[in-house]
Amino acid sequence: MALLNVENKKDALKELNAIDSEKTDFYPQVLWYKGLILIEHSENKDAKETLLELLEKGQEYKNEEAKTLIEKL
Q1: Range(s) of the domain holding residue 44
Q2: Global pTM?
Q3: Structural domains in the chain (count)
Q4: For the CA atoms of the chain, what is the radius of gyration?
């Protein structure tokens, strides 16, 4: 995702938060990348909540990876 390549991940997070995720086909991807950015910024509680939401609604997108990250948070 191009947003992860920008210098300022906070701007990328703002863009991801602005997406009306549940109305898109790429809702799981939005959650995954939000979780990664939150982890990078040591916002572990929010990252864990985001990854748990991915597990609930993500249609198995990155489930194993999300479980591994959740265990480490």
Answers
A1: 2-72
A2: 0.82
A3: 1
A4: 11
